[in-house]
């Protein structure tokens, strides 16, 4: 799952539904969110690591698009691959703070507040794989493409870019001056990853030009093989890289179905996997020789996203349905054998457990069976036998989930049982995992679905594409749910430079998201990774992003 500044800018969608069920709980469980450290990566001086070797990393799917800003390119596994070969100007640390990446960016600073002006000084050694140096023109092209004003561009998020008035050349081509028409407080979330101007030159280039692979790269690795039939991608050390030499020769990203991860780790096909909410994956990792389980506080949470088609166009109905969902029961069913308590239940869409600004704002949609029944009655959806109907039409809600994916299967069945208690029929439609996002989620083809989001240090701007309702730019608001109040609070929050005031606006925004019945957070993932004990500077990286690709290696 993407943990870089890109995740900050986009709140990148991450399919974090993982296998569930299996053997009884082990004698020791994972820590709760109050006890978990920020990172657990076998921190080792890269100079002491073996030179060379191959890292074998499992993914749930290959990249649908290597343009991470295009609507189909936001999947977390795709971002992992992209981050090995494309530049992140800013990097996010394990504690969610952000720093410039000196391999690409020597300096970035706010030089004026009114109007807001930010200057960037690029590393003169930074070059695209065609030999051209990074320049202000790459910034200008990206700002235009992501502004939301360029016709035909399928943009995942416009936050920040839509506020840019002008991008200009400074004293040299590597000096960039960005002037904002409207104050944008979270500007460090922009231009990561940075793409070459050619990728942004037209709607066709933006939407489909990078679908099968990157046209240009500028990272410590370059693409070796993309094989969708055999379901793997390799990236290899790039000798043209100007930064610290990577310890690894090669990284192979191989598609592995969730239920097969433990066996793949045991037989040497992969070197690690994320446990997610799977007691089976957690338990089996304990018995694999040479494998340890590492854990860090993760910015990932699982949720139910609601659609707005048909009867669900009424936000009151969506909220009434949420009141029939026992999130603590679901959390206990999936995490209860693995963690020590129920601290992972989430009551906020913008801040997660562990954040100083976290507040449980879920009261309007909190679990209450009797309240759910009353609200459904008041909306005219009355019991007609076992299930509710209105004007002769039965209230049937369609849950769409990926397969194979035991966690999605378990969540949907728990939800089906809970909905039956309030007289609502839930139909479950399992679709191929490879088609789940592009064929269903991205196009709003569901009533309810379940996947994960990653959060970054800029909660408002990173959430704009998810909660802002703009008929012209769906972005990542897959359920097409929202209202003018939400849009206004997003605008006010992204323009507020005072941190305390911005946090207050974020929590007011969160309250409105609850009232709109947009999505129902379930739980924060425990953040555990099963990994070979000989692998260093990798594992449970917490909020850090992207992974430290040049430092990852083997101790022997």
Short structural description:
With 556 residues, the chain is an alpha+beta fold. The chain is 24% helix and 22% strand.
Task: Give an overview of the whole structure.
With 556 residues, this protein is an alpha+beta fold. It is built from 14 helices and 24 strands. The strands form 7 sheets. Strands 1, 14, 18, 19, 20 and 21 form a 6-stranded mixed sheet that branches. Helix 7 packs antiparallel against helix 9 (369-378) and helix 13 runs antiparallel to helix 14. The protein is globular, with a radius of gyration of 23 Å. 55% of the residues are buried. Residues 1-27 have low confidence and may be disordered.
Annotation keywords:
single chain, alpha+beta, six-stranded mixed beta sheet, 24% helix, disordered N terminus
Average pLDDT, all residues: 91
Please give the alpha-carbon distance between the first and last residues.
Answer: 27 Å
Q: Ranges with pLDDT <50 over ≥5 residues? A: 1-27
Specify the number of helices.
14
Instruction: Give the number of DSSP strands.
Output: 24
Strand content: 15-25%
Q: What's the alpha carbon Rg, rounded to whole Å?
A: 23 Å
Query: Helical percent range?
Result: 10-25%
- Helix-strand makeup class: alpha+beta
Tertiary shape: globular
For the largest beta-sheet, the strand count, sense and barrel status come to: 6 strands, mixed
């Amino acid at each position: 799952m993407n943990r870089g500044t890109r995740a900050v800018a986009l709140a990148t969608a991450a399919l974090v539904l993982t296998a569930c069920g299996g053997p009884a709980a082990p004698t020791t469980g994972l820590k709760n969110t109050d006890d978990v450290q920020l990172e657990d990566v076998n921190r080792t001086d890269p100079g002491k690591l073996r030179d060379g070797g191959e890292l074998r990393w499992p993914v749930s799917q290959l990249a649908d698009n290597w343009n991470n800003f295009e609507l189909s390119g936001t999947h977390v596994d795709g971002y992992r691959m992209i981050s090995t070969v494309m530049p992140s100007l800013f990097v996010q640390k394990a504690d969610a703070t952000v720093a410039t990446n000196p391999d690409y960016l020597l300096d970035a600073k706010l030089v004026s507040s009114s109007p807001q002006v930010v200057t960037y000084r690029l590393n003169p050694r930074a070059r695209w794989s065609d030999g051209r140096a990074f320049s202000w023109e790459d910034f200008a092209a990206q700002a235009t493409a992501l502004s939301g004003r360029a016709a035909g561009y399928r943009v995942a998020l416009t936050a920040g870019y839509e506020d840019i008035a002008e991008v200009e050349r400074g004293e040299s081509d590597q000096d960039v001056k960005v002037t904002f028409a409207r104050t944008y407080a979270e500007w460090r979330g922009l231009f990561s990853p940075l793409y070459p101007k050619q990728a942004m030159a037209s709607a066709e280039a933006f939407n489909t030009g990078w679908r099968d692979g990157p046209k240009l790269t500028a990272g410590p690795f370059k693409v070796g093989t993309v094989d969708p039939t055999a379901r793997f991608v390799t990236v290899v050390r790039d000798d043209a890289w100007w930064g610290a030499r990577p310890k690894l020769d090669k990284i192979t990203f191989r598609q592995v179905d969730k239920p097969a991860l433990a066996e793949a780790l045991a037989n040497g096909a992969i070197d690690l996997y994320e446990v997610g909410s799977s007691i089976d994956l957690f338990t089996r990792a304990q018995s694999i020789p040479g494998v340890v389980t590492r854990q860090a506080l993760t910015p990932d949470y699982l949720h139910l996203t609601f659609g707005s088609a048909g009867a669900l166009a009424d936000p009151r109905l969506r909220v009434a349905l949420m009141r029939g969902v026992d999130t603590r029961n679901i959390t206990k069913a999936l995490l209860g054998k693995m963690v020590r308590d129920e601290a992972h239940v989430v009551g906020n869409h913008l801040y997660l457990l562990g954040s100083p600004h976290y507040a449980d704002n879920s009261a309007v949609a909190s679990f209450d069976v009797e309240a759910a029944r009353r609200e459904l009655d008041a909306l005219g959806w009355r019991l007609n036998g076992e299930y509710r109907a209105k004007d002769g039409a039965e209230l049937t809600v369609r849950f769409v989930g990926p397969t194979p994916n035991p966690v999605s299967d378990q969540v949907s069945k728990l939800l089906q049982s809970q909905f039956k208690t309030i007289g609502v029929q839930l139909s479950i439609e399992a679709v191929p995992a490879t088609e789940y996002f592009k064929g269903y989620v991205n196009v709003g083809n569901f009533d309810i679905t379940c996947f994960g989001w990653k959060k970054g240090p800029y909660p408002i701007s990173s959430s704009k594409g998810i909660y802002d309702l703009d008929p012209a730019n769906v972005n990542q608001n897959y359920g097409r749910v929202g209202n003018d109040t939400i849009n206004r609070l997003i605008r006010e929050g992204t323009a507020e430079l005072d941190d305390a005031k911005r946090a207050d606006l974020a929590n007011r925004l969160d309250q409105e998201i609850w009232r709109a019945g947009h999505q129902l957070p379930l739980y924060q993932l425990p953040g555990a990774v099963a990994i070979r004990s000989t692998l260093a500077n990798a594992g449970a990286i917490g909020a850090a992003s992207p992974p430290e690709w040049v430092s990852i290696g083997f101790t022997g």
